Structure formats: structure tokens, C-alpha cells
């Protein structure tokens, strides 16, 4: 898909997005008083009624454990579970049922391959190749394998557009190369990688290829036979199915030779204390009671996507493609498909709108992209942009997207990522782009930071933290709505005293925060137990949190800081409840910094 050449007008004429939206009840709600715009589909897509109904129907009518019972319910559950496998098998073009293993998702599928096939085939001095744009799920399992085997993990570089450097890959492959594991579509940038070319190249050198298809399955037609990959991993929840279910396709000749990944019930053929034998494929890799409802839900999702495509093709007067035979050439321009064309229009329109906003830079401008638009707003952290979009009811993802090496490659802490699905509309793209325009226009130029010697540590704002907390809480209690409280915190953030760059050192960096945070604590000169600090973050909302901590603790006695119930206070002002788990972790780390320092001071100051 070439973004530059397609315009919104090129949408498939038969595609009726309102009809699709009617199937997704969750979309019809207000968030923070505004109609929800859900652009976090690359993280997880929403579920149509057909999927929810299939799971509900299964639990209300057919549930029992599979494969073992002789009774009617068990037989029915088994039949549904195995029917689901047939549907998913056909959906990805796997030649036969034995090749498709149900897993919890992409992560488990890749771990399965690394821990079985990888362990069998990678030895000391060998090499495994991944790329610079991989999700952590397609880095860490290989990294761990390489550590264990004393092998080397090598990385295909990406260019400034976010495309793989295939010439570098060609040079990289050598007799020590055993496996290449590569994303089909990048979750952080949307780049569609030329996996077919990579597979052909790898196979010429006897190298096996694992494809991480987590972001490809929702957007592209996948035909694993045509691709000729050795393994293909994907997750159900990204393609309108439930969480906790996904799949791994593997060539049967590999699967036959691989040892089991996990052992226990269902994966055995015969167990005795002397010897145990494995069940046939695919059950050898499905130890324990499987996610039966998940598989049924995933099959319903697959049916839903197929039916949607076929029905729009029929409306358009095109001849519906046979369901079983999937079009070939996954890497090349796809045949006209209503769903893909609709998604492509969304991406094109969003790209054009966002590219025109001053101060916004798109990260990832590959020629071939699917479903994802990543960008940064100069002068504002991704976290702040995401939080402000959330206040408009717009759900995007911010941060490193589990691609920290890729962020490092681009020299950024993270991006804002809008990702699209079949139910999104061009109007939603406009709502999002209008909001982003306002956010980008609100960025203030950075004030020059004074020299270290001119720095002032904040004085105490009350007799002790309890007294300060009372004052602050009464300020917050006047503000009923979270939106107003949020703005109040942002305001505090804007006023937080700057921190000199010389103090922004690695020891002063607060880890496990979604943004970059520094805190420098000290005992006030001339005292033995008064704590003071300077702090900073690239996110204004986090600066606001730091400002709250500064008001509560800066200039206070260590013993009072240790005794103060800060989490109780955060709950009282509504902050704990409104923070995502990730942000809560960051705040806890900042609090722990102050508390820990104060605790050390109290120990030292005890005579
Ligand atoms: N690979 C890619 C490219 C992904 O986008 C994701 C999910 N963000 C994963 C792997 C991991 O998928 P899951 O969490 O469903 O196992």
C-alpha cells in the first residue's frame, strides 16, 4: 500500500462503515463527555457482537473439557474447538490442521519456537537475526536463547523511513546464521516488511524464518504456504478475537522433530514411570486444558472478517473470492478488498492531516505501511499528548510500544501512536487531527535554564506535610471534575522550577517511569534533617506530580516525610484512581525516591 497515491475518495464504494460500527457496541459510548474515538487498535482491537455472542453461547450451552469426555457436552465442546482450528487454519492459509497450534498469543508462540526449535538448532557461535524494529516479544526470547547457547544475536538495521536494510541483511547472512525472526508489520511504525523476499533469501542459505504476524493478520491476507515461512505467530485479540488466544503455524517437518514446549495433560500419548510418549500434532504442543472459549471466539472473529469482506464484495458486484483459497502474494499490492481499502484510506487521510500540523513529526514513513501512524510533537512529551487526547475521548497509545531499541534508533523516548481498524471513520480521523492541531499549537517555547549557581530549592510551603496536604486537598476539593483537577496538576507542572542539566545524570534518573524523570535530593546545607530536592520530567503531567511532591516534602523534616501517608493523600485528591497502572508505577517510584532518601537521613540524624 503506497500512502502517497491513495486519497480518501479512493475508498471501496461498497464499504459501509456505519454498518460495521453497529456490530461493535463498545464504540457507542461517551468518554470524558465526548464520543469515543478508539485509535489504539494495534494494542488490541474491539470485539464485534458475533464474537461476544459465540463465547456466551458456548458457555451457556456447550461447555465441558475437550478431548477427554465420552459425554455429549464434552463431544460438543471438542467439536467446536476443532472446528475453530479449521477456520483459523484456513484464515492463515495453513495447509493442514496439524500445522496450527493454539497458543495464548504471539508472545507465547515465539517463546515456544525459541525454546524448542531454537534450542535444537542454535549452538555456540551460531547467529540469530532479528531486526531493529521488532517488538520486545520478538527480541527477548531470542536474546535469552543466545545467552543460553553462547550464540550471537544480530540486528538488521532500519533506515530513517523505518524500512529494513535488505542489503545489510544479505551481507549479514553467513554459515553461522541459523534463524531469522522478523515482524511482518511493525507495531510501532506500521512498516510492512518484505517478508517473502526475506524468506526466499534466507532459504537460499538454509536459514529458517519465523514471522511475527501480530500486526499483519488484522490488515493483510496471510497465506503461510505462499510465504513459505517456517513459523508464523499471531494473536487473536488484534484481529477482533478475544484475549488469551492466538496461534502458531509451523511446517510439520519442524513440528514433528521439536520437543514439547510444556508437558502435562493432553500432550501425551502414553505415560508410565518408565517412559512417556507424546501425542500427535498439534496436541503435542497444547499441554493442559486449552482456551476453548478463546478458540471459539477467535473462529467467530475470523468468520466475521471473512463475511464482512464477502458481503461488501457482493454489494459491489464483484465476484466473492472463495473463502478457502486465500489470494497469494501477501507482500505485494493486494487485490481490491473493501476492508483493506477502507483502512488504507484512514491511514492516508490521517497521514496527510498530521503531516500538515506544524511541530508534529511522523516517525515511520515507509512506502508500504498498514494501520499505524506514529508521531512526536516537538516540545511536548508523548505522555502529555496522549493524556490531552484522552481528555477529548480519543484513545491512542504513547511510549515505546515495546520497541525500546527502535526508539533508541530514532533517538526518541517514545511516540504517540494512532492505529486504525475496520470500524474507524474519516470523521474520527478529523476529530483526532483537529484535537492534535490544538495540542501542538499550545506548545510553549522552552525557557532557558539558568546556571546551577542561580538555582533555588523550593522552601517549605507549610509547617509539615500534613498541614500542606490539608491545604492542597481543599484546593482539589473545589474542583469536582477530573478534567479540572488534571488541568490544575498540569498548571503546577508548568510552574515547577527548572532543574539544571548538570543534575540530569544517570544516578538521578528515576527508573520505571513512562517519561524521562530526574530527581536530585539533598539535605539542606546547615541542617541535619531538612530534605530538599530539584526535579524535572519531559512530560508536563509528570512535572505536575513532581510539583505536588515538592510542595508536600521540599523543606520538610525527614522524619515527617517518612511518617506521611502519601498514597492516602493521592487517593484523596483522586490522582491514584485516575492514573493508568503504568503512570501509577512511575509515581510510586518518585515517591519511593523521596521516602528512601528521608529514611536514610533519619537514620543518620539519630544521635
Ligand atoms: N509482536 C508484535 C508486532 C506486536 O504488536 C505484539 C503486541 N503488541 C506482540 C508481538 C505481542 O503480542 P501478544 O501480547 O498478543 O502476545
Structural write-up:
This protein is α/β, with parallel strands linked by helices and 607 residues long. It has three domains: 8-45 and 337-441, Aspartate Aminotransferase, domain 1; 83-303, Type I PLP-dependent aspartate aminotransferase-like (Major domain) (Aspartate Aminotransferase, domain 2, 3-Layer(aba) Sandwich), CATH 3.40.640; 465-605, Alpha-Beta Complex (Sufe protein. Chain: A). It is built from 21 helices and 20 strands. The strands form six sheets. The chain has a seven-stranded mixed beta sheet, with helices on both faces. A four-stranded antiparallel beta sheet has the order 13-14-17-16, with helices on one face. Helix 17 packs parallel to helix 21 (581-605). Residues 105-107, 135, 137-138, 183, 187, 212, 214-215, 235, 402 line the site of 4'-deoxy-4'-aminopyridoxal-5'-phosphate.
Give structural attributes.
20 strands; alpha/beta; Sufe protein. Chain: A; four-stranded antiparallel beta sheet; disordered N terminus; 21 helices; Aspartate Aminotransferase, domain 2; 607 residues; globular; binds 4'-deoxy-4'-aminopyridoxal-5'-phosphate; single chain; seven-stranded mixed beta sheet; 3 domains; Aspartate Aminotransferase, domain 1
Domain count, please report it. 3
The number of strands is 20
Strand proportion, as a percent range, falls in 5-15%
- Whole-number mean pLDDT: 91
Named CATH topology of the largest domain:
Aspartate Aminotransferase, domain 2
Instruction: Provide the list of bound ligands, each named once.
Output: 4'-deoxy-4'-aminopyridoxal-5'-phosphate
Helix content: 40-55%
Uncertain segments of ≥5 residues (pLDDT<50)?
1-9, 320-334
**CATH 4th-level superfamily of the largest domain:** Type I PLP-dependent aspartate aminotransferase-like (Major domain)
Span from first to last CA? 72 Å
Computed Rg: 27 Å
Structural class computed from helices and strand pairing: alpha/beta
